[in-house]
Amino acid sequence: MVDMPPVVELDTNMGAIVIELNEEKAPKTVENFLNYVKSGHYDGTIFHRIIDGFMIQGGGMDAEMNEKATNAPVENEADNGLKNDKGTIAMARTQDPHSATSQFFVNVKDNDFLNHSGKNMQGWGYTVFGKVTSGMDVIEKMRGVPTGRFGMHADVPKEPVVINSATIITQ
Amino acid sequence: MQSFDHLITTRPHEVRQVLISDLHLSPEEPALVQAFLALLDDCLALPTLKRLFILGDWFEVWIGDDAYLLLSEDERQTHWLTPLIVKLKKIRVAGCEILVMHGNRDFLLGQPFCSLFGAELIYEPYTLSVGQQSYRLEHGDALCIDDKKYQFFRKIMRNRLTQWYLLNKSLEKRLAIADKMRQKSQQNNANKAAYIMDVNEDAVIQAMADSDALLHGHTHRPDIHQATSNKKRYVLGDWRLLDGDTRQPQVSAVIGAVTADEDSDDNNAELRLVEFNVLA
Prior knowledge:
A: mainly beta; Cyclophilin; ten-stranded antiparallel sheet; 12 strands; 33% strand; globular; B: alpha/beta; seven-stranded mixed sheet
């Protein structure tokens, strides 16, 4: 049965961002992401790491920079052929290729070096699981916000960029 | 001169940009390669580092990106460049931009290779704002206009057609050509007076007309010069293996660092030359 791809809307304090998820190419990652959306995990989280010319990352911290509890990590699916091009959404993770939980990022440039190049620690890459279909103008505003240090975190927006809610529009 | 170690251990949060040049890396100089990796490790530990500039002669020779890009995954695993690419990628993912400029040795370096680690190939002259000042960045070889032989050679080498011609030759042929060119260069340099291999003062003044300061490498004579009454010329140093025959060899290089007070929006940023030292 071929369904329409799931679509999620992020309602932020800087505007709405609509993301179409590629369930076919990143089934585990999309399932993981939708679980967080359904449980309300993303509501009240912020984009805590914004680097202009690179990406905007969020979905893990609240406005006080406290990390929200997450589920078990999801397997890396970066070998699905999808590229970290401008406007795509991918999973953030630690050095461990299979450590992604709830944090994601939107590429604001074609970041080739994040793509899968081999099944080894350095080459695994970051799983792309969807793309922004509406709201790139919001992302363009977000990428330029003033940032600074917050404790041991760098590139933290001085004024919180908040995800008020994340909702599934179609599934 | 202040040591880079001292700077990064006393004021790590203030180091915003690092500028290096003239490493002349090759598999024949493992100590220099390790020293570069050590610098990258230092950079990874700097919480607000925004840019790393590599301003030419990063590699002793570069015969084309394909020498690395066409390797199989297995061949790459054991290649000397791979640890550099891995570490540079880490720096990029941590949010630091990497900007690479051609030198007279590695002018065939391409964007495809740089994209492996998210770096951007930049062209001279590059204008960098440091605080209220505008710095002109270039490799430096274009300023040695007294070396007419070299400038003639440079004109040919930097020509797109020449590069297209070279890159169309097989890797083996290119290696042979590179070897011959280096031999010839060494022979020629042995016969040249020291002054023609340094920058020409008039060329410097002309180049700096629209900038507040100039920074370059190439001459392997690190220093800060008063180019005009109110403009300075900063020269980065080459990476040198010292005491190579002793039990404690070390690599030393004069590099550039831009620092700014925290929360200052970089309005009072300043550039300084510091000495990078690491035990080999």
